[in-house]
Amino acid sequence: MSQPYLHLRLLSVLLVLYCILFASSVLMITALVCRPDQIQALMQFKSEFESSGCNRSVYLNGVQCHNTTGAVTKLQLPSGCFTGTLKPNSSLFGFKHLRYLNLSHNNFTSSSLPSEFSSLIRLEVLSLSSNSFIGQVPSSFSNLIHLTHLNLSHNELTGSFPLVTNLTKLSFLDFSYNQFSGTIPSDLLLTVPFLSHLDLKKNRFTGTFEVTNSSYRLVYLSLGQNQFEGKILKPISNLINLNHLDVSSLNTSYPIDLNIFSPLKSLLVLHLSRNRLLPSSLNSSDIPLRLESLVMPRCDITEFPNIFKTLQKLQHVDISSNRIQGKIPEWLWKLPHLSLVNLVNNSFTGFEGSSSHVLLNSSVQLLDFAYNSMTGEFPLPPPNIIYLSAWNNSFTGNIPLQVCNRSSLAVLDLSYNKFTGPIPQCLSKLKILNLRKNNLEGSIPDDFYNGALTQTLDVGYNRLTGKLPRSLLNCSFLRFLSVDNNRIEDTFPFCLKALPNLQVFTLRSNRFFGHLSPPDQGPLSFPELRILELSDNKFTGSLPPSFFVNWKASSLKMDEDGQIYMGDYKHAYYVYEDTLDLQYKGLFMEQGKVLTSYNTIDFSGNKLQGHIPESIGLLKALIALNLSNNAFTGHIPLSLANVTELESLDLSRNHLSGTIPRELGSLSFLAYISVAHNQLRGEIPQGPQFSGQAESSFEGNTGLCGLPLRGSCFAPPKQLQPEGEDEEEEGALNWKAVVIGYGPGLLFGLLLAHVTASYKPKWYLKIFGLDKEVKPVRVFMSLDSRWDSYNNHVERDSDT
């Protein structure tokens, strides 16, 4: 081997070692600077909480120590790192040299704010937002005299306005999204003279807002969604340096004249939602011409505001949830900087001008005109569009092929319209595609490329035929797949088991057929699947005992992103929340937002047979199970008692036999059960899970008896009547027997009732249906429309 070659190999090895050492040093630089006792204290603080999702290197990455003393001066906790209670004796309060402390977006469940924070007297920045803190803010917080930044937003804090009198260096103060009440101190801006950012949004503050000479430093003021009086607007109009103002939901008895904001020449953002506005000022007013964002949802506006014409720097317009009728004016789309337009939930019927080309020269990137009354052909989208939503209108014709030329388009929601024709092939390139409830025909395009970014695909309730595209296997980011209520004829797509992120998969009401457990396919287990809807198809065969082994619903693991509902929350300017039709507790629910913690299996309306697999008991996080309208035989599995989160169980219209397991009575959350039309026998178990059910939940089982069915499980013994007795005499004797037994029987019955009610009140009340105790049944679905989802998003946007 030549000498240069050896040198080259040696150089390569050294380069690799250098890279490894450099990467390690980056991760451990904190450990090199911080004193050993400080590192030990940091790990002690971590050990006080559940922190399995936050390893040592990620945790220490937010730590800085003083170059000379080695003491911790900065601690920024990663989001979602800690869960637990922050106690007064926490080792956190031993870091006396902290200047910067950010614990935001963690879960300190049911924790009050410890007064020990006041011992960290060197703090300059303290951020405790989105931590689930409760109770009042300790008065000792006013001892943190070096604070310039205090953020307690998005908690459940109560009481009056926290004491900040001594915090004379504050420039940033955020108490928004709490439950503070009372008035704002009249000398607030006098005692905190350097304050430039004040956010008190969404509390219960009342009264007015005092402005002093030092108030002119304010550039950001958010007072919206409190109970302030309308007269606060007059002093606010003197804050001439404001560039952001939120006065939504004021307590006014008169409409607001937009001319009151004319002195605010620096204003860029104005939020007026949920206020009544003076109609004349919407057409002609001296509103600040520098405005970039004007937000006016739910303001009872009936005509399109002409003031937009004068706002040539306008970027964001929101006039959603008003009562505006007619067509959208053509001049709106000519505003040169317009990028985000929300026209949702009005009564618009279309567009002025050439309806198909009116948007072609617009700069708009996010456009939502859902929930209106628009008809005709769909307009060609703007050239740089990113988000386009027009759901719940009455557009007709084909989906324009020009959408294929919009390379920036990521989200397209045209659901609940009257589109016809095929699905354009190019739509497989989108991140989110919702075409639900149209009249589309043909097959789903089978050209999802390798590495496709598709996360949500919903084409339910159309007239689609053919097979489910196998190229969906290339969509490694696919999270939500719904093709329900079409005419797709295919076998189960076992290849999709390899999708690493698929959480919702519904094939309901199609023509799928074949076995769900063929011997050559292995277990039907998806890595992340939470909802599997296969109802009303033609699946056949039996399920092996191990069918439910390794399913996601066996885990109680929470969503890693910390979101309540499934959807896309990662874009800076929009939120998309997935919605789904579900059958639950015997009811059909349309288009509800889906909790990330919700788990359901629905195999109803097929031709499955054999025993219900005992492995069903492994699905401890399952909330709803529907196996009705099949041909299952055998007993109800005892292992169902292990499905401790179960709320809804439907095994009706099968061929099940044996008795109803009494162990099901241990399922604390079980609120609905139906075993109707089987071959069950014996007494229905008594208890809160059964006694509150309708009689129809058990009908059609000739061998079942007991409440809530009519009749008793124990028939009274028949009396032997002497032969040859006269009917009249027999009747008299029986009547006498009744009278003789009535006195002591009534007395005994009343005595029994008294004793029972005195010593067994719950048993007594439950038997007679008078138990007022509420069972711990959790809500899994929100029946809010996607319009409400959008409004929540708008509120979040306005906070950003």
Automatic annotation (TrEMBL):
<protein>
    <submittedName>
        <fullName>Receptor like protein 26-like</fullName>
    </submittedName>
</protein>
<dbReference type="Pfam" id="PF13516">
    <property type="entry name" value="LRR_6"/>
</dbReference>
<keyword id="KW-0433">Leucine-rich repeat</keyword>
<keyword id="KW-1133">Transmembrane helix</keyword>
<dbReference type="InterPro" id="IPR051502">
    <property type="entry name" value="RLP_Defense_Trigger"/>
</dbReference>
<keyword id="KW-0677">Repeat</keyword>
<feature type="transmembrane region" description="Helical">
    <location>
        <begin position="12"/>
        <end position="33"/>
    </location>
</feature>
<dbReference type="InterPro" id="IPR001611">
    <property type="entry name" value="Leu-rich_rpt"/>
</dbReference>
<comment type="similarity">
    <text>Belongs to the RLP family.</text>
</comment>
<dbReference type="Pfam" id="PF00560">
    <property type="entry name" value="LRR_1"/>
</dbReference>
<dbReference type="GO" id="GO:0005886">
    <property type="term" value="C:plasma membrane"/>
</dbReference>
<keyword id="KW-0812">Transmembrane</keyword>
<keyword id="KW-0675">Receptor</keyword>
<dbReference type="InterPro" id="IPR003591">
    <property type="entry name" value="Leu-rich_rpt_typical-subtyp"/>
</dbReference>
<dbReference type="InterPro" id="IPR032675">
    <property type="entry name" value="LRR_dom_sf"/>
</dbReference>
<keyword id="KW-0732">Signal</keyword>
<keyword id="KW-1003">Cell membrane</keyword>
<keyword id="KW-0472">Membrane</keyword>
<dbReference type="Pfam" id="PF13855">
    <property type="entry name" value="LRR_8"/>
</dbReference>
<keyword id="KW-0325">Glycoprotein</keyword>
